[in-house]
Amino acid sequence: MSSKKETFGGTVGFVLAVCVVCALLVSFSAVQLKPLQQANKLLDQQTKILEASGLLEKAGKDIVKTYNEFVVARLVDLDSGEFVEGDVINFDERRNARDKALSIKPENDLAGINRRSNTSVVYLVKNEAGSIDTVVFPIVGSGLWDLMYGYVGLEADLNTVKSVIYSDHKETPGLGAEVLNPRWKALWPGKKIYNDAGEVKARLVKGGAKANDIHGVDALSGATLTSNGVTHTLQFWFGKEGFKTFIANYRAEGVK
Ligand SMILES: Cc1cc2nc3c(=O)[nH]c(=O)nc-3n(C[C@H](O)[C@H](O)[C@H](O)COP(=O)(O)O)c2cc1C
What we know:
With 256 residues, this protein is α+β, with helices and mostly antiparallel strands.
């Protein structure tokens, strides 16, 4: 027979001690891992931007080096369409869009974003000769389940699509998540965002785009709602409440 008696107070004390130790361990790991998480997030973002500009294969494992060598991130005021100075490194579109002082409620919220940051980052991507041959625009818009975040790479004419790359979404695998399918992504290069009148015509076409359609890409099968979301997102971000003024300002002279 054991001489030690289990008391209620002892059990509660033991449970509390275990809780405190666990809580300390969790907070310690959260604090310790935060810089690593931030570094991974940045690496992921840089990878997507290189993919959007067609430099991912060339970069191989040297993502950070290639990004630093070829990509310059600049802030743009979306209303004036001009570059502005600011903290581009810590720029956070999601945080800005929650702040009424830094964002607006769009007049025509085609993308279903509720609020739009007054400024955006654009990524200017140089070629080996040092001239900018791609501009990568971040986009966000509603899919079926939630907001979908991605990038559109345009050639130097600021009209011809190089890529449409989604980075963050909650669409269903096999349906809306087919935006990540390489076969679908391969349909985009060469498509034009605007027609000659400057209207945004890029869109997904249910049932398949015709071979000679310079603006249309096949919709995602079984995912009309996500497809419509992608079309509306493109229409919003390349329209007048998105990058249209910036593009109009720089299309003729080119981005330097
Ligand atoms: C579990 C579940 C997940 C779905 N996920 C998506 C999705 O991610 N994107 C989407 O557009 N439709 C999704 N749908 C289908 C939509 O409800 C809708 O039927 C579909 O968008 C219609 O597309 P279709 O006209 O091409 O068939 C999902 C349906 C179910 C039942």
